[in-house]
Hints:
Layout: H1 2-13, H2 25-35, H3 38-55, H4 65-71, E1 76-82, E2 88-93, H5 104-119, E3 130-135, H6 146-159, E4 164-170, H7 176-183, H8 189-192, E5 195-198, H9 200-204
Helix pairs in contact: 1-2, 1-3, 2-3, 4-5, 5-6
Domain CRAL-TRIO: 67-217
Pfam families: CRAL_TRIO
Protein name: CRAL-TRIO domain-containing protein
Amino acid sequence: MADVNLLREKLKSTETKIKHLKVNDKLLRRYMVAHKDVNVAYEKIKATDVWRDEIGVAKITNETPGVKRAMATRIAKLLEGRDKLNRPIIYVAVRNHSFRNRDIDDMTQFIVYMLESACSKCLDDELDNLCILYDMGDFSLQCMDYPLVRVLFDILQAHYPERMGVCIILNAPYIFSACWAIIKPWLDENSAGKIIFVKGDDHLSTYVDPTIIPEDL
Length: 217
């Protein structure tokens, strides 16, 4: 808590004004947990504030053309239910994605929209992080989009620190093990430790009620 107080005072004492982030104790705590050092956390907060302004986070809605185009692919949705720790769940139907047919700018906007929507559902008196569930059923290499995965994890780690509470990889086929070997080095140790590989409903039920998984995606 002392470091959080120091970070708050540093933000107050500088001429740089944070205009595009809601600065509260939870945000400051997330940045300190992720970055450990007050000066590093301070610079990261400033960088995120600039990033949010540059890409227009506040203006990205479900009516944004890029978001609407990405939604039409039925790749992901924010579920009504929550995981066993009461976290919002972003469900990703990987089989509905094709790296050949996507626009990276549209998908980047969609990622931000989904993260902002999920974060808005975090409860003040509960864990303020998310569950991201990748359903790997019917996965093929056509679905494997390395540049987009890199964008997702870069955004999460740089601008939504400690927002990913758990990332569940459900029913990944053997072929995905080669893909994972490429992806894992992109993650910092903390993020990599939150990735859980799950097989079947019995295993999934430890984290998420299987009955809330959508059948229409």
